[in-house]
């Protein structure tokens, strides 16, 4: 029988305690090669079971680029996403759409629902194990994931993906064929549940006639999806960047390290296509099954994002958005890092 601590650590590491009809879209948002799916309720309503249209995005001018925020996988390290979002928000940088995998899908969907960065931080600090933990022994895993689904839906006010104020795209992996899929409509919590379902730990999430598992297996930092959606500027947050020592003398350590190695190599390929890559230093903060040090992990995101503000400004200017863009020009010598989450 699983003891209480093991159940707590495993599910929290996977879910990470945080803690986000096509009308007049820009043309580049319509030719997407990644498979787009809806969870059943939306599929029935639209009578489109396989390929869904993208939610309408605002119209943009040449001085107002489409910004994508890409939030990668990484278990408890996903707290760092919140720190990054705090810095971006406080400096007037808000994404036009978000793409999230696994841990990134949790933070991204709650942020996309209209929550502020400060609210994200409070959610992360106040979340309890029983909010998301539902042990269910099965041949395919020992966490059901239904509580994760319900928790996320509560946090997003029961809004389906297509009604979130910021368009949200959730990446998961279709188990039978091992292919990447992107949910952009329907039950938000169910899509996130699929995206965080680590194989052999979570029972795969069944949606319609298919089973889905952790999106990090196919696309740990889904930059390519953001590019396919037509983003002009892609800000990617990679929380798997630094090497870290993992104890491999037991099954959990081996499992942890296997995921680390696989996802790191996959992420490196996609990150080549991002404009800005933010990689918090998490070597001494958290690992994929760690639920301690939430504050330290969020602060690592703060520090990393501050270090990229000058580069973001340079990207704007290099791409011709220097006039009328939504952010200020940053002093590259700035080295003061301070966040007051209440503001």
TrEMBL record:
A motif (DGA/G) lies at residues 214-216. The active site is at 102 (nucleophile), 214 (proton acceptor). InterPro entries: Acyl_Trfase/lysoPLipase, NTE, PNPLA_dom. GO terms for molecular function: hydrolase activity. GO terms for biological process: lipid catabolic process. It holds the Pfam family Patatin. The keyword Hydrolase applies. A motif (GXSXG) lies at residues 100-104. It comes from the Bacteria. Keywords: Hydrolase, Lipid degradation, Lipid metabolism. The keyword Hydrolase applies. This is Patatin-like phospholipase family protein.
């Amino acid at each position: 029988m699983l003891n209480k601590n093991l159940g707590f650590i495993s599910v929290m590491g996977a879910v990470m305690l945080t803690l986000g009809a096509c009308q007049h879209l820009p043309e580049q948002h319509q030719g997407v090669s990644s498979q787009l799916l809806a969870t059943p309720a939306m599929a029935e309503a639209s009578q489109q079971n396989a390929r869904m249209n993208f939610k309408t995005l605002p119209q943009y001018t040449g001085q107002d680029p489409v910004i994508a925020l890409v939030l990668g996988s990484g278990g408890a390290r996903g707290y760092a996403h919140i720190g990054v979002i705090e810095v971006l928000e406080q400096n007037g940088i808000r994404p036009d759409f978000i793409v999230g995998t696994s841990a990134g899908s949790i933070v991204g969907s709650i942020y996309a629902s209209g929550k502020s960065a400060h609210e994200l931080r409070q959610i992360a600090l106040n979340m309890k194990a029983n909010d998301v933990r539902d042990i269910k022994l099965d041949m395919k895993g020992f966490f059901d994931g239904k509580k994760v689904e319900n928790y996320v839906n509560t946090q997003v006010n029961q809004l389906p993906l297509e009604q979130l104020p910021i368009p949200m795209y959730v990446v998961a992996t279709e188990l039978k064929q091992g292919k990447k899929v992107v949910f952009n409509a329907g039950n938000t919590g169910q899509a996130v549940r699929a995206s965080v379902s680590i194989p052999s730990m979570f029972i795969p999430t069944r949606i319609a006639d298919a089973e889905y598992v952790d999106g990090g297996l196919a696309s740990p930092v889904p930059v390519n999806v953001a590019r396919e959606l037509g983003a002009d500027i892609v800000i990617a947050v990679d929380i798997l960047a630094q090497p870290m020592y993992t104890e491999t003398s037991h099954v959990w350590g081996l499992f942890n390290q296997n995921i680390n190695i696989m996802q790191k190599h996959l992420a490196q390929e996609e990150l080549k296509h991002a404009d800005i890559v933010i990689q918090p230093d998490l070597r001494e903060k958290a690992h994929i099954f760690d639920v301690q040090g939430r504050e330290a992990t969020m602060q690592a995101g703060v520090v990393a994002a501050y270090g990229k503000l000058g580069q973001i400004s340079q990207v704007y200017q290099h791409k011709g958005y220097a006039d009328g863009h939504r952010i200020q020009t940053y002093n590259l010598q700035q080295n003061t890092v301070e966040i007051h989450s209440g503001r």
